[in-house]
Amino acid sequence: MQLSQDSVRAASERLRGLVRRTPLLFVPRGTLREAPGALASLEGLWLKLECLQVSGSFKARGALHAALCLEPAVRARGLVTASGGNHGLGVTYAARTLGVGARVFLPSNTPEDKRHRLRVAGAEVVIEGAVWDEADAAARAFAEAEGRAYLHPFADPAVVAGNGTPALEVLEDLPELAALVIAVGGGGLIAGSALAVTPGVRLFGVEPAGAATLSASLAAGELVTLPAIETAATSLAPRRSAPLNFELVRERVERVVALPDEELRAAARWLWKEVGVAAELGGAAGVAGLLSGRLDPGPGPVCAVVCGAGGRPGPEPT
Q: Could you report the per-residue pLDDT of 57-81, keeping only the tens digit for each?
């Protein structure tokens, strides 16, 4: 599949009626006045609420689009993936939509609530390895041995095209968009967004400092594998990205910043307190980038993608 904005538009058509067109919520200036970082200087902030997507995150888009692109006979044998939780939920949603089975390999650092949600949704869950990369190796081996379709969470072109559809919707709803801020794990969402947005839109990424896969790769000028993962934001925690994602980010993303978990938690609390939106740590990463003061989105409308749902954040630390 040759990837372009047309690929994202085609994915949007395939997904029509099968996933939600999530809201674009405006946060007015009065809510931002006392906020730290870049937020206080904005005339307002737009939030793309992918936390309200089916399965709880944007991942349902890429997973279902990739499944729809499979040959029916291949798809019928069942879907296999490895996930930190959200992509597995997306693949399970795709499997239920298409009437096939799903087997999801999870690393041992996957939160228990996501394991439970996967089982309730009908996935066959396998715990393998300490981090996503180890679960991924097991998933690939199983899919090859059993002749089943393996859906990569971020390096599959069909997944990337599907994951670009939230940014496409933002542009359709907000044609004057100036900057888009996105959470980064393996890079599937930001790579798809890089395809979707028009050249004049500035694109920024935010990843956990304890899983700064793309920041390290950009600094090195090539893909690198992190020696370890040290973040509670397990939805954004592969040790290595992929060539497809790395090249799109290097060509089209203005800056990727890495933030400590404390700043991700602060953003999740801010979203709940000021906006009433419950986001997991990874889902709040885009907002964290603006609160941190390390990103300057410049003039014009700014949107952050809230990409994953979470429970109500805990109280402020004392």
A: 999 999 999 999 999 999 999 999 9
Amino acid letter at 119?
Answer: R
Alpha helices in the chain (DSSP H): 5-15, 29-32, 59-68, 72-76, 86-98, 112-121, 132-146, 157-163, 165-173, 188-196, 213-220, 243-252, 261-270, 285-291
Q: Do 12 and 5 touch, CB atoms closer than 8 A?
A: no
Question: Mind listing the pLDDT tens digit for each residue in 176-220?
Answer: 999 999 999 999 999 999 999 988 999 999 999 999 999 999 999
What is the maximum alpha-carbon separation in the chain? 57
In this structure, what token pair is assigned to residue 235? 């939805």
Whether 171 and 247 map to the same domain: the answer is: yes
Round to whole Å and give the CA distance between 308 and 304. 12
9 found inside a domain: yes
Q: How far apart are the C-alpha atoms of 310 and 302, rounded to whole Å?
A: 23
- pLDDT (0 to 100) of residue 84: 82
How many domains does the chain contain in total? Answer: 2
Residue 171 structural domain: 5-57+158-306
Mapping DSSP to helix (H, G, I), strand (E, B) and coil, where does residue 63 land?
Answer: helix
Residue 255 has pLDDT above 50, yes or no: yes
SS3 128: coil
